[in-house]
């Protein structure tokens, strides 16, 4: 399943969230300077967990929206949307292998200061896979429900630009039988925080 619709989906969700009326402020307005949005992209390296296994490389992109409109400590909770496409470094025995995911969920900051941000996340959505099938050449593509816990760290590189190291463990529900396929891997990339670090 190509991921081309996801940039439009991300933009639509961000616009909808931006129109939600704000709750009464629990903190001075100065703490809310800047758009509560983070955008990023990176390179992913995953164990794709198909057949006898192996690793593939791909690209990922994400958008995080801080839930500043909620009471309590909302700055620690974000909505995360991410897309991932593993399409490079496939083994010779699987010449058409490709895995795509489009996921949305929550991200919670476990610890953060001006220069380091540690987080956990739980996302879910759809996974798409292309594969080689010698038994039935007509069946070489399928889509599955995907759930994925994960976490990572961001380190401020320069002003509002951060380096992100993300880990994700995916559960592709009942792939080709009663068991889940469980791709897992790391993404190394860069995030731009539209809200300055001093206001987090």
Structure, explained:
The protein contains one helix and nine strands. The two termini are 36 Å apart. It is elongated and about 60 Å long. Strands 1-2-3-4-5-6-7-9 form an eight-stranded antiparallel beta barrel. It has a single domain, classed as Porin (Beta Barrel). 29% of the residues are buried. The chain is 6% helix and 52% strand. The N terminus is likely disordered. It is mainly beta and 200 residues long.
List keywords for this structure.
eight-stranded antiparallel β-barrel, mainly beta, 52% strand, 200 residues
Number of domains: 1
Q: Globular, elongated, flat, extended or rod-shaped: what is the shape?
A: elongated
Secondary structure: helix percent? under 10%
CATH fold naming: Porin
Q: In DSSP terms, counting alpha (H) and pi (I) runs of 4 or more, how many helices? A: 1
Return residue spans where pLDDT drops below 50 for at least 5 consecutive residues.
1-30
């Amino acid at each position: 399943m190509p991921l081309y619709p996801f940039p439009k989906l991300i933009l639509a969700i961000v616009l909808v969230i931006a129109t939600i009326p704000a709750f009464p402020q629990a903190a001075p307005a100065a703490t809310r300077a800047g758009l509560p949005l983070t955008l990023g992209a990176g390179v992913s390296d995953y164990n794709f967990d198909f057949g006898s296994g192996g690793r593939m490389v791909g690209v990922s992109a994400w958008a995080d929206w801080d839930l500043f409109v909620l009471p309590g400590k909302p700055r620690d909770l974000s909505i995360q949307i991410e897309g991932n496409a593993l399409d490079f470094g496939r083994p010779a025995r699987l010449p058409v292998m490709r895995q795509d995911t489009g996921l949305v969920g929550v991200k919670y900051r476990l610890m953060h200061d001006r220069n380091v941000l540690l987080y956990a996340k739980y996302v879910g959505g759809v996974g798409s896979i292309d594969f080689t099938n010698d038994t039935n050449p007509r069946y070489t593509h399928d889509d599955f429900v995907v759930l994925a816990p994960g976490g990572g760290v961001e380190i401020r590189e320069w002003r509002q630009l951060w380096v992100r190291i993300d880990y994700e463990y995916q559960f592709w529900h009942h792939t080709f039988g009663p068991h889940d396929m469980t791709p897992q891997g790391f993404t190394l990339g860069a995030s731009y925080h539209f809200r300055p670090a001093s206001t987090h």
